[in-house]
Amino acid sequence: MTGDTQRHGEAGPRGTPVGGRPAAGIPHQAPTPLGRLVATVERLRREVLEAQAAADGRALVELAKGILIGQLHCTPAAAARQLDVLCRDSGMSLLELAADIVNQASRDHVSAIAAEFVERTGTADVPAEEHTAVSVRLRTAESGMLAAAADTQAVAESLLTNALGPLGAVAVAVWTAVPDGSLALTGHAGFRPGEAARWRHVPPGVSTVARLALTERRLVTLAGQKREGLPSIGHLQWSDGGRMAVPTGTGGRIHGVLEICWPGPLAPQPPQIERQVEALADLCARTMDASPPRDLTAAEAVLPDVAELIDLAEGLQDPAVVLTPVLDPEGGLGDFRIRHVGSRFVDPLGRPRGDVNGALLLEAYPMAAGESGLFDIIERVHATGEPFRAERMSLTALVDQIPLTSVADISVSRHGAAVLLIWRIEDETARLANLLQHAQRLGRIGGFEENLATGETTWNAQLYALHGLPATAPPVRLHELPGYAHPDDSAALGGFLRAVLRHRRPASVNFRLQRPDGITRHIRVVAEPVLDAEQRLYAVRGAYQDISAQHWTEVALAATRDQLAHTEAESAERNRLALQLQHAIMPPTPPAIEAPGLRVAVRYRPAETESLVGGDWYDTVVLPSGLIMLSVGDVAGHGIEAATGMVVLRNALRGLAVTGAGPAQLLSWLNTVTHHLAKHVTATAVCGLFDPSTRVMRWARAGHLPPVLVRAGRADAFPLIDGLLLGALPDVTYVEREVRLEPDDTLLMFTDGLVERRDSSVQDSLRHLMNAAGAGSGELDGRLDRLLAESRSDTDDDTCVIGIQVG
Questions:
Q1: Which of 223, 367, 608, 710 minimizes the number of CB atoms within 10 Å of its CB?
Q2: How many degrees, rounded to 5, is the angle at CA 218 between CA 215 and CA 223?
Q3: Where is the PAC domain (predicted)?
């Protein structure tokens, strides 16, 4: 209320109360003219206040309707009927009921403020009707300030003070979407002085929080602006504050964006808060929409005057269509009405203009909602106001249920509440000429025609570029070509000219063109004679093509072939030497080794591909102490380096074993040799020392698979003990274990080429090997042959197997 409003019961002039009614105890007097005037003023004042209250509460009732629509999944009309039924059953006013529905649905800060206010004021001195209207006043405070605001700046200030401040927000910005794609700051509150001036205008294409909401056309919540990397107004003031941005619009049009700032990180907001913010954005949009108000429940929005737009469409040289939005019962955009079709309009279905004019867009052209996305483009332009233009866009129409596609240049722009759609169907002749021009440019081809009767020669623009001549220079005629070519190509050009001009048959030639700018290009000329009705030569047509890139590619390819052949020969020689070295030390089928107390057999299978010469090795030797050393190893890699590394490690281990050291010490010394004496070599190995007198075998491993013991038809792998591969670190300590072998036991030591597969784990492959070894019987040589034959390895690697049978 205004500050000069008198309360009921205060006396007016001459002791007459406001409204002209006599005060108690005063005799009835005839109403005076002044009393009638006072009564009229009071009545008008009450009507104005009632109208203001109704306007303040209208947004609150609409918000309650929206909550009922979301909860009951009903239409706006059904929600309104439900509100009437609830009012009648509860005996509450419409505003009181709407406030209760919103409070129960949101449970937000505004509800808490209402409860605190009631608790603080109490109910002793508050009339019942005033107590029940507390939540109404609080709810209408956030919407009434908007309804009473005169401009967008006042809206922003009112929003922050009355609605968003209780939610913890510290600043509000209202952006208007300008048709050129930019954003204009039309209202703000809570920011530092000067901040608004810096952000008064945001050019098109600049990514901001408001731009994100406008592009996605939905409410956007950012927990912290700094982590998202999107700048906006006040981003230095609250560097990691939360942001919420929601598009504001009516009738399917987006007028701008409401952006809300929090001082710190923003937790995920419940749907009730988001609905409240969206409702505030809708109220904010009413102050930004300059068009007259309309009933959003109507099937179609009230249309602005589109006469000027229709005149513009008629003045265009291209087909144009004027579209106006059609709203659904909920107030959203449902379709577009074809309000006018230009005089140059041609319907793909062959329908006259009158059949299309006035129809709905999706009814007349249902394929617009298909893959072309034309309807989505029109909808976005209508919503945001940003124009859309595209070249060579595919448009599809159904002709007798057959989709026909045409290519057109499209332009879509918004004018007021209407949309202007312009398209230019690509002419087939122009399209083919354009394709030919692009093909000539990409292929570096230039065409010519030489009229022998008139002496006139015609070149296209690409041919001038090939010759390095300006467009104003005279073309080079065919008989003048030898003067522009390399002297060594004169004979070839002479034969080409004789074939075309004298023998009148098509011909081609390659020559080196020496251009005026000093650049030499390799050119191919193709020409054919043109004969008249009497078979006389009157013109020559043809084309020049720059084949310099192809020529130098062929030269480089020939040099590469020579280099590759030389490299292949060197590689083959290196592999041959590596294979000879490998076979000299590791024969594929060595003879069986007879040692005291056991029999040793070895099978070695080189890689199937000679280019994969590997570093697998094995060794069995009787030491001076009477012990028998058994070892297998695998040097990483292939080729001559792996083969020479294998030789170094095998011979080093054999020499170290003479010292009488145990397997763990031998591997430790071998690791030192690998790390310091063999460059860039790593390897795995298993080393064992067997004592024939006690049948005890001491063994150690360096990153290798453990041996497999076959006893009484059962195969088991030795326990996996620690041991780092050779060459990884300079100083490594290895673990040693003992196993007592029994008569008729068979011990298998092997490299990973026997079990390794690309499609399964090593454990699965090792389990398959143990099953095969346990099922085998017979002589040791036959059993090793069967293991190699049943191996499932597919890595094309060397394979080495040592079989030790205890006597």
A1: 608
A2: 95
A3: 507-559
CB atoms within 10 A of CB 727: 27
69 contacts: CB under 8 Å, gap ≥ 6: 75, 76, 79, 330
CB 72 within 8 A of CB 79: yes
Class of domain 151-290: alpha beta
CA 798/CA 804 separation, integer angstroms: 20
- pLDDT tens for 617-647 read 888 888 999 899 999 999 988 777 777 888 8
How do residues 193-244 score in pLDDT, each as one tens digit? 888 888 888 887 788 888 888 888 888 888 887 767 788 888 888 878 888 9
Element (H, E) at 399: strand 388-399
Domain 585-806 superfamily per CATH: PPM-type phosphatase domain (3.60.40.10)
Q: What is the DSSP string of 592-609?
A: PEEETTEEEEEEEE--SS
Strand-pair category, 445-451 with 746-750: unpaired
Report the CATH number of the 430-546 domain: 3.30.450.20
pLDDT tens digits for range 152-208: 787 888 888 877 887 888 999 998 887 767 888 888 999 988 888 888 888 877 888
Rounded-to-integer distance, Cα 573 and Cα 570, Å: 5
Closest-CA residue to 288 (of 200, 198, 416, 186): 186
Parts of the chain belonging to CATH 3.30.450.20: 307-426, 430-546
Residue 696: both structure tokens together: 């005890």
Closest CA relative to residue 360, chosen from 396, 385, 335, 379: 335
Within the chain, all domains assigned CATH 3.60.40.10 are found at 585-806
Beta bridge partners of 389: 411
Angstrom distance (rounded) from CA 614 to CA 634: 8
Q: How confident is the model at residue 125 (pLDDT cuts 50, 70, 90)?
A: very low
Burial 391-425 (b: 16+ CB within 10 A, else e): eebebbbeeeeeeeeeebebbbbbeebbbbbbbee
Percent of the chain with pLDDT over 90: 14
Q: Which two tokens stand for residue 548?
A: 């310099």
Helix (H), strand (E) at residue 768: helix 762-775
Q: Outline which parts of the chain fall under CATH 3.30.450.40.
A: 151-290
Which two three-digit tokens encode residue 166?
A: 């209780």
Neighbouring C-beta atoms of residue 314, cutoff 10 Å: 13
Return d(Cα 349, Cα 385) in angstroms, integer. 30
Superfamily, domain 307-426: PAS domain (3.30.450.20)
Angle between helices 640-657 and 548-585 (to 10 degrees): 20
CA 301 – CA 253 distance, rounded (Å) = 11
Give the three-state DSSP class for 405.
Answer: strand
How far is it, in rounded angstroms, from Cα 721 to Cα 64? 74
CA-closest candidate to residue 69, choices 250, 279, 245, 257? 279
- Where are the strands (E) in 649-745, listed by range? 683-691, 696-702, 708-711, 714-717, 737-740
- How far is Cα 272 from Cα 268, in angstroms, rounded to an integer? 12
Cα-Cα-Cα-Cα torsion 302, 308, 310, 313, nearest 10 degrees, comes to -140
**CA 315 to CA 310: how far, in whole Å?**
9
d(CA 464, CA 446): 8
Residues in Cβ contact with 228 at an 8 Å cutoff, skipping those fewer than 6 apart: 209, 222
Give the distance between the most distant pair of CA atoms in the chain: 148
* Token pair for 79: 């929600």
CB of 632 closer than 8 Å to CB of 749 = yes
Three-state DSSP state, 641: helix
